[in-house]
């Protein structure tokens, strides 16, 4: 059963799939805890990162920094990216360095776990 659950979680690539997996798990085992939900979002983040060919994700005790590949960086409209990040949270910082966009999310003061914000960001980039 554990392997089956992990396979389902590893396939999460949209809010619809995440919701379906969450509902199935809650139907079978009762309300899931926050840690499992965060794990599901982390898997979704991993899948989005692969899909967008992220070149680097750096996590420290204060922030997470995402480096977008040069090709993706060249195709993103900066003003739209700025608007998207600000609509998610004002804790994002954006810079352009060595032909790459680098987006930093600072943890302090976030209302939710940082992974929720990162998934929203990557979904906005993907839909760009």
Which features would summarize this protein structure in a list?
128 residues; alpha+beta; 4 strands; 17% strand
Explained architecture:
This protein is an alpha+beta fold and 128 residues long. The protein contains 6 helices and 4 strands. The chain has helices spanning 2-10, 15-29, 34-51, 70-75, 78-88, 114-126, and strands at 56-59, 63-67, 92-97, 100-106. The protein has a 4-stranded antiparallel β-sheet. β3 and β4 form a beta hairpin. The protein starts with a helix and ends with a helix. The mean pLDDT is 94.
> Radius of gyration in whole Å, from Cα?
16 Å
Q: How many helices in DSSP terms?
A: 6
The structure class reads alpha+beta
On the 0 to 100 scale, the average pLDDT is: 94
**What characterizes the major β-sheet?**
4 strands, antiparallel
* Low-confidence residue ranges: none
**Residue share in helix:** 55-70%
Order of the strands making up the biggest sheet: 1-2-4-3
* Strand segment tally: 4
Instruction: Note the overall shape.
Output: elongated
* Distance from first to last alpha carbon: 38 Å
The sequence of SSEs as H and E is HHHEEHHEEH
Strand content range: 15-25%
């Amino acid at each position: 059963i554990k392997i089956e659950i992990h396979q389902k979680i590893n396939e999460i690539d949209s809010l619809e799939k995440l919701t379906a997996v969450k509902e199935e798990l809650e139907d079978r085992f009762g309300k899931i805890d926050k840690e499992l939900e965060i794990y599901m979002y982390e898997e979704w983040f991993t899948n989005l990162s692969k899909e967008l060919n992220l070149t680097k994700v750096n996590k420290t005790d204060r922030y997470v920094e995402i480096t977008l590949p040069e090709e993706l960086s060249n195709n993103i409209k900066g003003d739209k990216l700025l608007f998207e990040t600000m609509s998610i949270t004002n804790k994002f910082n954006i810079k352009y360095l060595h032909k790459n966009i680098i987006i930093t999310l600072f943890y302090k003061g976030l209302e939710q776990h940082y992974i929720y914000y990162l998934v929203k960001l990557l979904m906005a980039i993907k839909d760009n």
